[in-house]
Amino acid sequence: EQYAVPRMLRKCTRKPKIDKESVKKFYTKYAEEVPPADHSAGPDGVAGEHFLRLCEDLGIDPATDVAALALASACKASEMGVFRRREFICGCAALEVDTLEDLRAKVLQLRTDVLSGKTLPEVYSYTFGVAVEPPSKVLHL
């Protein structure tokens, strides 16, 4: 199976500081077919039960832990509870992680950064943008 990991890494960052094979293995451990596909070869994303398993393995509760929102924001996920192939790989490159253990350690930092206010505006803006249904500019209560 061929995955477009190396090409995506070049598009995400100039000099990735992660191991391409490790991030490929990390991605395929949780990946599944998610319609619509953004790539013709291989699983397209991490969603549903696979997403919940990833969160569990990271030690975060996606329903209550701000780290889940911070991670989604860092990956620039286009929808809640789903990491598309490009989002997952580029997110790993941006966070400089290529294994579950590395991401678990980074999640602690993401949580601390939000709770201290360091990244709260960015995470809030991201979350609001994902939660608003187009073409709305306000969130319905």
TrEMBL record:
<dbReference type="GO" id="GO:0045116">
    <property type="term" value="P:protein neddylation"/>
</dbReference>
<protein>
    <recommendedName>
        <fullName>Defective in cullin neddylation protein</fullName>
    </recommendedName>
</protein>
<dbReference type="InterPro" id="IPR005176">
    <property type="entry name" value="PONY_dom"/>
</dbReference>
<feature type="domain" description="DCUN1">
    <location>
        <begin position="18"/>
        <end position="141"/>
    </location>
</feature>
<dbReference type="GO" id="GO:0097602">
    <property type="term" value="F:cullin family protein binding"/>
</dbReference>
<dbReference type="GO" id="GO:0032182">
    <property type="term" value="F:ubiquitin-like protein binding"/>
</dbReference>
<comment type="function">
    <text>Neddylation of cullins play an essential role in the regulation of SCF-type complexes activity.</text>
</comment>
<dbReference type="GO" id="GO:0031624">
    <property type="term" value="F:ubiquitin conjugating enzyme binding"/>
</dbReference>
<dbReference type="InterPro" id="IPR014764">
    <property type="entry name" value="DCN-prot"/>
</dbReference>
<dbReference type="GO" id="GO:0000151">
    <property type="term" value="C:ubiquitin ligase complex"/>
</dbReference>
